[in-house]
Recover the amino acids of this structure.
């Protein structure tokens, strides 16, 4: 594994220690405290000695999980930053071997030696610690040296977070997304909050060479403060007049940036009423440059968007059918400003011809042309491509402010709506407690981080590397809690742990979002008396007899229908067995496949696990609703050394009942049928 903690000159050892510490290495591995104390008393330098692999005694003790030995070596001055010949630090060795308490101990000491104090739980890392690490290079093709800031601090859309970044990097731009307010990100010499890649996967470099998702290369990436990069261009967008404000200090910072040679691209979308256009926050920013998104609808091709009300300094670069501008530019001070009337001009569509203006190639060409023109007011920043970057979630730059709510650390920008913050502080702990009660699960140690993003439209969850992150994009209070329940459920996806303290068996892909939506629907039913779009009986809107959609053959395009059908199945089981069956199913799965934790489960495997959980054969029911399965019956099963007889479950394809909101029972005990179901 390549060590991520770079060597800082001020902390380098002033002398090297030869590889003559064999006895102390053996004692460190066997946890012989008395011998190690004796050896160090005679020669303190042995604490830094290395074996033939470059490992120090701290490496050996850390990899073995010998906490008392690690404490002793740290007290005697062991080098927490030393890497062995493979590049691995003692901290990384402990983390990789699963010794989290030992890893935390070494990490805390690392921070203490740099900052003079131990870190607090959930604390964003001091910049002196963060910058010991090296950010990965951005995958920029034919690097232009131009740094682009994509502002998500006034609207957060997945197309901007994850597609615009790719489109621009493919065309030579370094791209940094940000959920923070613009004045904090543009302040020279100030700091922004990012994810710091402290521990990467053993094959991280190969993953990045293969252009795979960057989050696959991460293991532990805590939040840390990082010096603000310099930018050539800002791209900001907003489609909802109800979204967060552009604050006066932000507008002033952007104006100063442009006057000094920076570029600004403003993107709108949607045709709004005169009242909404007047309160649309992006128009306050646009007004500073003599422009506005108007209330009139204009058409460009098949795109319908708002008119642009432009002052005399603007030049139309692309025109609608009525001759008005849909894309225009102007100079401002030493810099340049562009305005685009519809985000659809920056949004590639699927399943269109290559020569379509909406194809990925043509959208990328247009978007990069706009950005390249805007960048023309100043010399490219150049230098390193190692600037903050998103990794499967939010960021690269996260909101600048924070608050603590129960076990959550909540990040938010200083333009966030006060009513949303109040609701988060008062109601989020209740929702968290309820979802966790319904779904006890394998969870990561330490706090969970909650990103209160701008705009409306959903959320995201990061649970493939630590610490876990939940992002919420909502302008509505109950909507915020609903999306929070959804994303929290994602992080509880593992279910109750097996004897190894782990989850095991990989469910077919349609299950992950269905699982999150299942608990989102329950929270909706609990708080508002309805499940809305998560109602299992919506199945019959597209699968009239409940038998047409085959769960075993659901394609990605059918995932939404697949989720609904799974909710229907799960509700029918709730109706018969009560809500404890779901948690018991996940526990059965984790126990049954604990010796094959990475096994990708077939649908037959899934139905077997569910049948064992409920104590009845569910194959007839799943086949009845059109699921392709190899087995017709599953009359008995072996589980935990016992033979279980499984009579066929007499479940019919009829509308499902209401949400079951009561607490769960002991999921390790066999299900007892509801009296009404017997």
């Amino acid at each position: 594994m390549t060590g991520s903690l770079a060597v800082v000159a001020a902390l380098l050892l002033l002398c090297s220690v030869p590889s003559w510490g064999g006895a102390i290495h053996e004692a460190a591995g066997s946890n012989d405290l008395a011998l190690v104390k004796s050896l160090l008393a005679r020669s303190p330098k042995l604490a830094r000695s290395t074996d033939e692999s470059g490992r120090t005694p701290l490496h050996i003790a850390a990899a073995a999980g010998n906490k008392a030995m690690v404490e002793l070596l740290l007290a005697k001055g062991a080098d927490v930053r030393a890497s062995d010949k493979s590049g691995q630090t003692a901290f990384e060795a402990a983390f990789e071997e699963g010794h989290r308490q030992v890893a935390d101990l070494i990490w805390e000491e690392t921070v203490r030696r740099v900052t003079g104090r131990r870190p607090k739980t959930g604390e964003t890392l001091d910049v002196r610690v963060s910058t010991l690490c090296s950010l990965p290079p951005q995958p920029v093709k034919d690097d232009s040296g131009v740094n682009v800031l994509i502002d998500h601090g006034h609207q957060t859309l997945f197309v901007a977070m994850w597609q615009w970044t790719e489109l621009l990097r493919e065309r030579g731009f370094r791209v940094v997304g940000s959920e923070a307010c613009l004045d904090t990100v543009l302040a020279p010499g100030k700091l922004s909050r990012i994810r710091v890649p402290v521990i990467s996967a053993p094959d991280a470099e190969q993953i990045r060479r293969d252009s795979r998702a960057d989050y696959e290369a991460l293991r532990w990436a805590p939040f840390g403060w990082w010096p603000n990069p310099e930018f050539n261009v800002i791209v900001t967008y907003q489609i909802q007049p109800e979204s967060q404000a552009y604050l006066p200090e932000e507008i002033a910072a952007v104006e100063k940036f442009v006057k000094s040679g920076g570029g600004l691209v403003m993107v709108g979308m949607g045709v709004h009423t005169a009242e909404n256009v007047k309160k649309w926050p992006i128009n306050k920013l646009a007004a500073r440059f003599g422009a506005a998104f108007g209330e009139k609808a204009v058409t460009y091709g098949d795109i319908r968007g708002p008119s642009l009300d432009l002052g005399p300094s603007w030049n139309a670069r692309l025109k609608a059918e009525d001759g008005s501008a849909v894309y225009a530019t102007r100079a401002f001070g030493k810099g340049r400003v562009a305005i685009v009337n519809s985000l659809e001009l920056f949004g590639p569509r699927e399943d269109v011809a290559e020569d379509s203006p909406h194809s990925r190639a043509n959208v990328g060409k247009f978007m990069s042309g706009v950005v390249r023109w805007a960048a023309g007011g100043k010399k490219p920043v150049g230098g390193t491509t190692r600037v903050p970057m998103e990794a499967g979630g939010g960021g690269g730059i996260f909101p600048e402010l924070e608050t603590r709510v129960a076990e959550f650390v909540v990040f938010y920008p200083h333009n966030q709506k006060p009513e949303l913050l109040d609701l988060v502080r008062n109601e989020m702990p209740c929702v968290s407690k309820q979802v966790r009660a319904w779904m006890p699960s394998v969870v990561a140690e330490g706090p969970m981080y909650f990103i209160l993003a701008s705009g409306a439209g959903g959320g995201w969850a990061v649970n493939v590397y630590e610490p876990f992150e939940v992002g919420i994009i909502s302008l509505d209070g109950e909507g915020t809690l609903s999306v929070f329940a959804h994303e929290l459920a994602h992080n509880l996806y593992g279910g109750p742990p097996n004897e190894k303290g782990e989850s095991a068996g990989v469910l077919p892909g349609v299950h992950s979002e269905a699982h999150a939506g299942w608990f989102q629907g329950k929270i909706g039913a609990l708080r508002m008396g309805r499940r809305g779009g998560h109602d299992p009986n919506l199945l019959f809107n597209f699968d009239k007899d409940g038998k047409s959609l085959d769960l075993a053959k659901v394609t990605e395009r059918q995932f939404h229908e697949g989720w609904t059908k799974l909710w229907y199945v799960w509700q029918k089981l709730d109706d018969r067995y009560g809500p404890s069956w779901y948690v018991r199913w996940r526990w059965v799965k984790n126990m049954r496949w604990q010796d094959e934790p990475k096994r990708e489960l077939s649908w037959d495997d899934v139905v077997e696990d569910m049948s064992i959980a409920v104590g009845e054969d569910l194959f007839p029911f799943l086949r009845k609703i059109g699921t392709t399965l190899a087995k017709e019956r599953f009359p008995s099963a072996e589980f935990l050394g016992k033979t279980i007889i499984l009579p066929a479950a007499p479940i019919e394809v009829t509308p499902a009942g209401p949400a079951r909101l009561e607490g769960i029972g002991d999921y390790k005990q066999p299900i007892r049928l509801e009296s009404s179901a017997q």
Remarks:
- The chain has four domains: 9-119, 146-176+232-377, 399-476, 493-677.
- The radius of gyration is 28 Å.
